[in-house]
Amino acid sequence: QSYRYWIDQVGVDGFRVDTVKYVDHDFYHDFFHANDGIEQEAKQTGRNDFLSLGEVFETSTPYHTEGESKLIAYLGTTAKPELQSMLNFPLQATMNRVFAGGQPTAELGFRLRKMMELYPDPYRLGNFIDNHDMARLLSQSTKADVKQALFSMLTLPGIPVIYQGTEQGFTGYRDAMFQGGYREDGQQVDSFNDQSEMYRFIQQLVQVRHDNPVLSRGDLNILAEDSTGAGIFAYSRKLDNAEALVILNTADQPMLLNRMATGAAAGTRFKVLDKLHADSLTTDLIADEAGLLTLALPAKSALLLTAEGNGTPPATDSSMTLGTALADQVLSADQPLTGTGTPNSQLQLVVDGNLANAVTVNVDSNGQWQGTLAVRHFAIGQLAHRLALYNPTTGTSLADIPFQSLLAYPDTANQTLDDSVDGVNGSAGPLGAYSLPQDASFDTSNSQMSIQQAQVFQAGSNVRLSLKMASVTDTWAPTNGFDHVGFTIFIHLPGQSGGQTVLPKINASMPDGATWQRQVVAFGWQNSLYGSTGATASAFGSALSPAPTIAVDKANRTINFDFPSASLGRPDSLDGIQFYVTTWDLDGLSSSYRPLNTTPGPWNFSGGTSQDPLIWDDLPLISLSESR
């Protein structure tokens, strides 16, 4: 009766249903579809398309769909329907990993393909980048990351859901916009501004979406993605005779979009409808004689294109060749390369589209060149790569040549540290003086925050930090697979300037006078990498990517942090790199460190004051050496 009243007397057109997974399926069928239910009331008031949007806070691990399965279950069946649609948590988590964490764009491609394949009506899903129950995306990334995520969300199928304050650049997870409401910084000011940078950015994207129905109703086809890391991601939208292309570069450096098939005819002209961080691209783009596009994309850029007319296809360069038999080879060591090109020109050897790390080779007067393909900075495992020959002067390129790399960690750890006998429950802060929060989900016998052993594995410029914990739990269904422990890991990179000694937000400093240039903050719902630039005792530094990947072996109480070469600044040597690992717990809603008080409480630590270090357990400085 109450919810029928809201439809009949107030005129609402849809319900967002909170915490759906805690209520039986039969209830939703009855509530919405019974003769006296919500759908019947909506139809009686002329609302034949009443929206019910459910909140099931479940995500999926990369390249899997366990979250989608849980969401779809609450849509019911044709014979016994339940809700009409869901908030798209699996997509939100993947967008966070890709746009803020620098993870492979192929993860987003997988998630979108499954979205279109598995849901009965993906166009009704509520797509979002953050909400009131999690840390804002901007609190763990950059403004450029957030803009890219919004650019993508507003050009994809689904209903865009924008959390209030995103348009004002808020970082506090439940900040109030209007005068009299508190913000994270304690101010009571009117924060609503329809001229702010983010407000105008979102406003423009919304208008473009409104003016081009292909963006809300068109088919979706993934055109380009990267399985090795941040970089190119592209998709097309088609509706009747309208076609749009969206091209993004999620990396922190320029990337090469190499001969991407557009599905368009030779010479098709693509007009720029909107762009982000791509002011250097001032002209329309034209597909070549095979309908392909080649383009150097600036860092963190995005393009929205629409097919409009024809132009002259760009010229091709038939002089470029690769003489070395590389295709489909598996490399575990550096590979010399030779080839041909236009005499007295320069070419770039571009691996996985990364222009910033491309190797420049000189073509001699006889049209010959030679170079080396190094494997040191490739990630662990047998991974697929691609090599392109690119002439930056003419903008021409050779088709991608596929190859693979194979790097593996040694079977035996390079270092092992025993940390099992350093105090109560592993540590419990200085002199074992701290007590855990009193909520029953904390393991008081074997604290989730206590490290028993650490092992370090090294290969190339990659590092695995393997931590064996006293206990690993997942009571709250955390995205990263573990809860009630947060890791704050500080990394010293020798030879890099700008190091800090202060440890942001945990009331401590680096041991032994060491400095740090990278910081990882990771707990159940966040995995972020920061630089030391701008860091203070109360603020994290600049957001960086990629963050390490995390893998949990709950049965063996082990949490692995895999740092790819890029996370460590692509070092030529691991010698002298140091890790300082600390643990505490963070609030899953606000992504803030739980407070330390003198008296016990369900969600605060006790046995100290708010000025004491927020460190339950830590490890001695771990120093790396390639000779180990």
Write a brief caption for the model.
With 628 residues, this protein is of the alpha+beta class. Helices cover 14% and strands 30% of the residues.
Could you characterize the architecture of this molecule?
It is a single chain. By secondary structure, the protein is an alpha+beta fold. 14% of the residues lie in helices and 30% in strands. It is built from 9 helices and 38 strands. Strands 26, 29, 30, 31, 34, 37 and 38 form a 7-stranded antiparallel β-sheet that branches. A 6-stranded antiparallel β-sheet has the order 6-7-8-13-10-11. Strands 15, 17, 18, 20, 21 and 22 form a 6-stranded mixed β-sheet that branches. Helix 4 links the parallel strand 2 and strand 3. Helix 5 (89-100) packs antiparallel against helix 6 (105-118) and helix 5 (89-100) crosses helix 7.
DSSP strand (E) fraction?
25-35%
Low-confidence stretches: none
How many strand segments? 38
Question: SS-based structural class?
Answer: alpha+beta
Provide mean pLDDT, rounded.
94
C-alpha-based Rg, rounded: 26 Å
Q: What is the end-to-end distance?
A: 71 Å
Largest sheet: 7 strands, antiparallel
Q: Helix content range of the residues, please?
A: 10-25%
Number of helices: 9
What is the approximate shape? Answer: globular
How is this fold's topology laid out?
Layout: H1 2-10, E1 14-17, H2 25-33, H3 38-44, E2 51-54, H4 66-73, E3 85-86, H5 89-100, H6 105-118, E4 126-127, H7 143-153, E5 159-160, H8 197-211, H9 214-217, E6 219-224, E7 232-239, E8 242-249, E9 255-261, E10 268-276, E11 285-286, E12 292-297, E13 302-310, E14 321-322, E15 330-331, E16 335-340, E17 346-351, E18 359-362, E19 368-373, E20 381-391, E21 396-397, E22 401-407, E23 415-418, E24 451-459, E25 462-469, E26 486-492, E27 502-503, E28 508-509, E29 518-523, E30 526-531, E31 543-544, E32 549-553, E33 558-563, E34 578-584, E35 596-597, E36 605-606, E37 617-618, E38 622-623
Parallel strand pairs: 1-2, 2-3, 4-5, 15-22, 35-36
Antiparallel strand pairs: 6-7, 7-8, 8-13, 9-12, 10-11, 10-13, 14-16, 16-19, 17-18, 17-20, 20-21, 20-22, 23-24, 24-25, 25-33, 26-29, 26-34, 27-28, 29-30, 30-31, 32-33, 34-37, 34-38
Helix pairs in contact: 5-6, 5-7
